[in-house]
Specification:
Order of helices and strands of chain A: HEE
Number of domains of chain B: 2
Oligomer: heterodimer
Order of helices and strands of chain B: HHHEEEEEEHEEHEEEHEHEEHEHEEH
Strand content of chain B: 15-25%
CATH class of the largest domain in chain B: Alpha Beta
Structural class of chain B: alpha/beta
CATH architecture of the largest domain in chain B: 3-Layer(aba) Sandwich
Structural class of chain A: little secondary structure
Number of strands of chain B: 17
Chain lengths: ~80, ~400
């Protein structure tokens, strides 16, 4: 029974913040020709500093160093 | 997050969420993505049709939308189908726009075809080659050096996305002095030494943007308002290729319109809700910058929830909070509680969208993004939108609003 309870608990969907709400932002986001995975999926948001030409300031978190716009840059 | 972060799950919040109709949202999305909307680029007839459609839709929900116009210094659009031909070694190749080459946002105007030999060390009349990651000021300096050498233009690399398209770019710093064309990297290699004739008629024009604003009054006239926003502009269609701009961001707009219908039908909450379908996000978040400035001048400091890309659910929802100081703890608590109630994991991710303009104005802001397939590509189309994602976004939004309505 206890194992059943454990399995049920593990299978229960998780909601709410699973990271610190202001954790350093991952550089995994896709942008400007750099999809985050092989299917072309962009996982939420365009990622900051897009196209290396961003005109938007990032008020809360620094943009992660990364290439953009199909330019395989170092950031 | 600890249990204290969970807010009260009010009957009102649950009812609002339950009334969200993802099929209605999908119908709205399809209308925004129709070819007649032409990708909703500001300053185009298709964009005006989208504006009129949204105003009409909101009126049908019982709201009284108004347009707030603002100037846009520069839009970019192609006036004709771009062409690219390479001749060398006895062969002639015609490349395909968007799949093999594309416009470059820093290009000088190219009113006529430009012909030259592609050279590593360009002389007068040659196309120069720029590989690698040079961009920003470095690119401008390099372009200036090539211009002084008398080069005809610059060919530079742009990776194709997973579907084989060179994604569309519609903003950037001022143009350099030379025409610039982007090529797939393998083709950039293969055309070196060839004679290339390219014509990419990219023009820059001023335009007038239009934010679509509506207010749902609250019961407490002194309460700080809630602001829900999403951008309705798109990157625009190519001359011979339609860009529906479904995920980015017809999805967010469709969710907001459906959420507005639910809120209006439910009657006033305690706090007023400002609805903003903002314009010109794709060319530098110009509409939200104007809106944020206007609100600040009026002394209005709302809590902001901005939705950008809700067409595909990747198992968790990106949230970008701002400003960094002070941390909008009440937004964190409301989102966390709403996420728990909807069984939606939230993570701290970049949502580079209008939320940053509101955050920069000092408004407690959250950018919310579920994801999209085929960013800035003609494949960003309604058939690739997941209605479940629209539903999740809508319910999360309404659940969060319900919790924020309980606090100020």
């Amino acid at each position: 029974m206890s194992s059943s309870s454990s399995e049920a608990s593990e299978q229960e969907p998780v909601g709410g913040f699973v990271t610190a709400p202001t954790a350093a932002v991952s550089s995994a986001g896709g942008c400007c020709g750099e999809p985050a995975d092989a299917t072309g999926v962009v996982p939420g948001g365009q990622s900051g500093g897009c196209c290396g030409e961003s005109v938007i300031e990032v008020p809360s978190v620094p943009a992660a160093p990364r290439g953009c716009c199909g330019e395989s840059g170092k950031g | 997050m600890n249990a204290n972060a969970q807010g009260p799950e009010t009957a009102e919040a649950r009812r609002l969420e339950d009334d969200f109709d993802a099929e209605r949202a999908l119908t709205t999305l399809r209308a925004l993505c129709a070819p007649v909307m032409s990708g909703r680029a500001p300053g185009t007839p298709g964009h005006r049709r989208a504006t009129e459609f949204l105003v009409s839709l909101l009126r049908s929900h019982g709201l009284e939308p108004r347009l707030d116009h603002f100037p846009i210094a520069r839009t970019m659009r192609l006036t004709a189908q771009p062409t690219f031909r390479a001749e060398g070694d006895g062969t002639v190749r015609e490349l395909t726009h968007r799949a093999q080459f594309a416009e470059h946002p820093r290009s000088a105007p190219m009113p006529r075809p430009v012909t030259g030999t592609v050279a590593e060390e360009p002389g007068p009349g040659d196309w120069a080659v720029v590989r690698g990651s040079t961009r920003g000021e470095g690119f401008a300096a390099l372009a200036e050096r090539f211009a002084e050498l008398g080069a005809a233009g610059i060919l530079t690399a742009q990776e194709a996305d997973a579907s084989g398209h060179l994604t569309k770019r519609v903003q950037g710093p001022p143009p350099v002095r030379l025409p610039v064309v982007a090529l797939r990297p393998d083709l950039l290699e293969s055309v070196t030494g060839s004679v290339v004739t390219a014509h990419v008629p990219l023009v820059r024009e001023p335009a007038t943007g239009a934010n679509i604003l509506a207010t749902l009054p609250g019961r407490d006239p002194d309460a700080r308002p809630l602001l829900v926003s999403a951008h309705y502009d798109g990157v625009g269609s190519d001359p011979q290729l339609h860009f529906p701009c479904a995920g980015d961001n017809a999805s967010g707009v469709a969710v907001l319109c459906e959420a507005a219908r639910v809120l209006q039908a439910a009657g006033p909450g305690r706090r007023p809700v400002l609805l903003a379908l903002v314009d010109a996000e794709e060319i530098g978040t110009v509409g939200s910058a104007h809106h944020a400035r206007t609100l600040a001048e009026q002394g209005v400091r709302p809590d902001v929830l901005n939705l950008d890309m809700a067409g595909k659910y990747n198992g968790q929802v990106a949230v970008e909070l701002g400003p960094g100081e002070p941390l909008p703890a009440h937004l964190v608590e409301a989102l966390d509680s709403a996420g728990r109630s909807q069984r939606l994991p939230l993570f701290s991710g970049q949502v580079s969208s209008d939320n940053r303009r509101y955050a920069s104005a000092g408004f407690p802001s959250a950018g919310i993004g579920l994801g999209a397939a085929h960013y800035h590509s003609p494949l960003d189309a309604p058939e690739r939108i997941d209605p479940e994602a629209l539903g999740k976004a809508g319910r999360l939004l309404l659940a969060t609003l319900g919790r924020l309505d309980d606090r100020d």
